[in-house]
Please model this.
Amino acid sequence: MITEDVLIGYVRTALPGAVVSVTDRTGTMDHFMIRVVSDHFKGKGLLDRHRLIYQALNEPMKDGRIHAVEIKTLTRDEIK
Model:
């Protein structure tokens, strides 16, 4: 099990200044929806953006604390 605050910390370490929100999708603290807003994504396609997040979450995904993750990535300019 991993907390939302710990997940946010992993992402912010990889993408300083990112605005990160995490939602526990099932109540089991291992299936998450993560929304990240960061200008680090400018000029990057969807796959490259998601790779950045997967790299940030590599440790908890490998050790099983994260079973499934849904990712939404935006730049500040893309927020509606």
The radius of gyration is 12 Å.
